[in-house]
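Researcher: Quick test of sequence recovery. C-alpha cells follow.
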C-alpha cells in the first residue's frame, strides 16, 4: 500500500475523461482512505508554471530528488484506484506536505 506524502507514478485521467497519461502524482489521502484501495492525488508536471495554482518541488522538499524539475498543480486533484498506481518515485517531506495541504485549502477549497 502506498501512503500519504508518497510521489507515485499513476495513470492520470484527462479532465474530459477521454484517456489518461502516465505521470507522477502526490498522494494526499490518509491511511483511512488508502486502505480502501483508492488514493486521492494531485498531479505533478515538469511543465513549469507560475502563479497561484502551482507549487514547485525543490530537491530539498523530497527524500530523493525528482528526475525532472517538477511542480504540483494543486487544482488537478483526482481519485485513482490502486490498480492505476504503478510505483513509488520518492516521498515528500512532512513540512513541505503541510504547506501543500495549506495551499490547497486556501486556494482550491475555500
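Model:
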Amino acid at each position: 500500500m502506498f501512503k500519504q506524502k508518497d510521489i507515485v507514478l499513476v495513470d492520470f485521467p484527462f479532465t474530459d475523461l477521454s484517456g489518461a497519461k502516465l505521470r507522477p502524482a502526490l498522494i494526499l489521502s490518509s491511511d483511512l482512505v488508502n486502505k480502501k484501495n483508492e488514493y486521492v492525488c494531485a498531479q505533478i508536471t515538469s511543465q513549469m508554471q507560475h502563479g497561484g495554482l502551482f507549487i514547485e518541488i525543490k530537491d530539498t522538499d523530497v527524500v530523493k530528488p525528482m528526475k525532472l524539475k517538477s511542480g504540483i498543480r494543486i487544482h488537478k486533484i483526482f481519485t485513482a484506484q490502486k490498480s492505476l498506481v504503478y510505483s513509488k518515485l520518492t516521498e515528500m517531506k512532512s513540512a513541505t506536505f503541510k504547506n501543500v495541504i495549506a495551499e490547497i485549502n486556501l486556494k482550491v477549497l475555500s
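Residues 7 and 26 are 5 Å apart (CA to CA).
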